User: Fold this.
Amino acid sequence: KINKLIKQISKYDKTLELNDWAKYLFIKRIGDEIYKDTNKSNIFTWYVLSKMAYDIKVGYNKEGIYLLSTIKHKLFQVSFFNLSKKRYYVLNTSHGMKRINQLRIYKGNYPTSINSLSFEINKPIKFNKDVQSKKLSFEFQGKQYNINAKYSKNLVDFYKSFPQSDYKIYFDSKNSIQISSSLLKELNDQLKNKTQIEAVNFLLRFTQKSFAYKTDQDQFSYEKVMFPEETIFYPYSDCEDRSIMFSTLVRNLLDLNVVGIKFPDHLATAVEFTSKIKGDNFKYKGRTYTISDPTYINANAGMTMPKYKHTSFDIID
Assistant:
């Protein structure tokens, strides 16, 4: 019976192009519907994921049963335990929950359960219902532009379940069908006949001026890095969200390399142009990158916020 169930789950997995996290939530939802009991549902989810070769463990305390898994990358603001030199994150936690400091954990391993869960999005997740649209307006070189961006509210709701992950998860995520067919298409139409530097500055101005600014603490009361669909949906965004949005646009529309620039309290981006550009730039892996800050209002490529002019930074490749 379990093999038949896994075959059915795999069919939906393939149809919807689910990533590992979506697959976990899908299986958990099946357990919730069958058992109407959180603890039993967690045991069911552990069993199914173990059979699907994921490295999952069960832990419990007086509050209930929890699932733990190795993850391919770092998570933040999530409880974890180190077992056999591996880090196991607690899966069934949510924003605002108190940290779980103690659990009794079954340390045995299911022989074939060796795969770590991942939050990577390597294919467009096909949550294509409840598609909504938002008009994004900005000015560039004295002309007003209006861009209609579509997004799936179902996908936005799914992203609410994400704990904060490595920045690379957001920078490298595959675009949704809605982003590709609306935002990217409309912006691409506006980039025709523009030089490379004009196109980058155009995308900078779009990202700088189409979204109202507010910190995560003020908007959500916790740290939240957003995917482009979320930046479109929510009323506010911050430097991290705009850097991810800008990187997505430049890579997809201009086919240029982009890296993240992590200052102590700020995130920006830098673009590798095909010709030399005036302004602030640096060498990385033998390539020249020019600072392009999507939060520095009205700044063009090559301009660094004055307060960060002489500040060291880390690279997000």
